[in-house]
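Translate structure to sequence.
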């Protein structure tokens, strides 16, 4: 077992933990729905702070391993395509910088709402959330685009041009494919875990496959 395979295994576990971090952010009495965004939701009143604290810690513990996988993929790609490898390293750095911030905002909003709804009316709570969004919206957008879309484009490009030496069938192992599969499960009323974390699991599998071929 080389360092790439070992990192991929660590990343697979870390990505699963990160995917579980999304579960506490949705209504436990409903089928897995979209994580609440800008607006407060009333079910936050009916649960405890521990739900959102757990979500933060799962994300905190899971994310580092996922970024390590992206970095090691960049190292492998750099051997054949220094430009693509550098692009993935830069993208990984930006993702590291913004990724946890995105999840902190998701956890912070319900914690704030649980303390504000008894003291303020709905309009005032919405104004407080809007003020928070003005600060967090840009880095959250950057985080999502870099971690989900740009990484996928770079890795897929590396597979197509041979910079990442894995079988071409591995083009299907990416966050776009896994998200489509999760959406199908969701339409079938199956409770799912976080799509971004599952996407990171795909990159971990790619790294393991690439590591075995060295």
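Result:
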């Amino acid at each position: 077992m080389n360092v790439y395979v070992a990192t991929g295994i660590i990343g697979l576990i870390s990505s699963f933990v990160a995917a579980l971090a999304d579960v506490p952010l949705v209504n436990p009495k409903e089928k897995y729905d979209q994580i609440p965004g800008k607006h407060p939701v009333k079910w936050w009143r009916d649960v405890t702070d521990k739900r959102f604290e757990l979500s933060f810690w799962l994300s905190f513990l899971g994310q580092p391993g996922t970024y390590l996988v992206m970095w090691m993929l960049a190292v492998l790609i750099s051997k054949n395509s220094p430009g693509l490898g550098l692009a993935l390293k830069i993208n990984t750095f930006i993702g590291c910088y913004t990724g946890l911030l995105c999840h902190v905002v998701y956890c912070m909003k319900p914690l704030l709402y649980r303390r504000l709804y008894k003291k303020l009316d709905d309009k005032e709570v919405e104004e407080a959330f809007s003020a928070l969004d003005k600060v967090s919206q840009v880095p959250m957008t950057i985080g999502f685009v870099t971690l989900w879309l740009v990484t996928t484009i770079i890795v897929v490009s590396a597979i197509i041009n041979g910079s990442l030496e894995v079988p071409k069938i591995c083009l299907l192992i990416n966050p776009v494919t896994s998200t489509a599969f999760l959406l199908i499960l969701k339409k079938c009323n199956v409770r799912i875990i976080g799509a971004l974390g599952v996407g990171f699991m795909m990159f971990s599998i790619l790294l393991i496959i690439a590591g075995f071929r060295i």
